[in-house]
Design a protein that fits this description.
The protein is an alpha/beta fold and 193 residues long. The protein has 2 domains: 1-28; 31-191, Collagenase (Catalytic Domain), CATH 3.40.390. The chain contains 5 helices and 5 strands. It has helices at 3-26, 55-66, 132-135, 140-155, 182-191; strands spanning 43-47, 77-80, 88-93, 104-109, 125-131. It has a 5-stranded mixed β-sheet with strand order 2-1-3-5-4. Helix 2 crosses helix 4. It binds zinc ion. Zinc ion binds next to helix 4.
C-alpha cells in the first residue's frame, strides 16, 4: 500500500469509528422515566451519621454536579442536618443489607416514604446507600465517581453501560469516567428544562 492509500484507509477507519459510536450510544435510553417531584434547582441533602466518613466525597460529588464544567445546568444542592423533607439522603451500610457486589444503591420514595418505581412515577426523595465493604476497596477517585453516579440516578438518569466515558456507566462495565460528563450534564438540562 502506498502512503496515500494508507492515509485514506486510516481516515476511513476513523470516520467509521465515529459513526459507529453515535449509533452504539443511541439505543441506550438516557432517562429512567420519571423525575424528582420538586425539580433539581433547590435540593436539600442529608448525610446520615453512618455515612459521615464519606461527607467529603459526597460534597465533592455534589459540587461536581452543580458545576460540571460544561456550562449551565439547573442543579443546586444544600446540605442540611436532618432528613426532614430532603431530596436526597445518604446512608452507609456496614453489614449484608446490600448485595455483595453492589458498591452503592439508589432507591426512590414518595412523600410518605413508600418505595416507588422511578420508571412509573415521580419521586419525592431518593435514598443513596453506600456499601462500605465494597466501596472501601476502591480508590478515592472511583468512590467519588460512584457517588456522582448514584446522584445521577437520584436525578433520573439511566445507565449508559456502552459508554465507558459516561459517569452513568456502571463501574463493573468498565467506567473510566469519575466526574460528570457532558452527555449526562446535557441530559439534566433536557429532563428539567
Ligand atoms: Zn447505577
Amino acid at each position: 500500500m502506498n502512503i496515500k492509500k494508507k492515509i485514506f484507509a486510516l481516515i476511513l477507519v476513523i470516520s467509521l469509528t465515529l459513526g459507529l459510536n453515535q449509533n452504539v450510544f443511541a439505543d441506550e435510553p438516557l432517562f429512567i422515566g420519571c423525575k424528582l417531584q420538586r425539580g433539581v434547582s433547590n435540593m436539600y441533602y442529608y448525610v446520615d451519621s453512618s455515612a459521615e466518613g464519606y461527607t467529603y466525597l459526597i460534597n465533592n460529588a455534589v459540587d461536581n454536579w452543580v458545576d460540571t464544567g460544561y456550562g449551565w445546568n439547573p442543579i443546586y444542592m444544600s446540605p442540611v442536618a436532618s432528613n426532614y423533607a430532603t431530596d436526597v439522603d445518604f446512608y452507609a451500610r456496614f453489614g449484608d443489607e446490600l448485595e455483595a457486589t453492589t458498591i452503592a444503591k439508589t432507591s426512590f420514595y414518595d412523600i410518605n416514604e413508600g418505595r416507588v418505581s422511578a420508571s412509573e412515577s415521580d419521586w419525592f426523595f431518593a435514598k443513596i446507600e453506600i456499601n462500605v465493604k465494597v466501596i472501601n476497596t476502591l480508590r478515592e477517585e472511583v468512590q467519588q465517581g460512584t457517588i456522582a453516579h448514584e446522584l445521577g440516578h437520584a436525578f433520573g438518569l439511566e445507565h449508559q453501560n456502552k459508554n465507558i466515558n459516561s459517569i452513568m456507566c456502571q463501574f463493573s462495565c468498565g467506567r473510566k469516567m469519575h466526574r460528570v460528563d457532558e452527555i449526562s450534564h446535557n441530559a439534566i438540562n433536557t429532563l428539567y428544562n
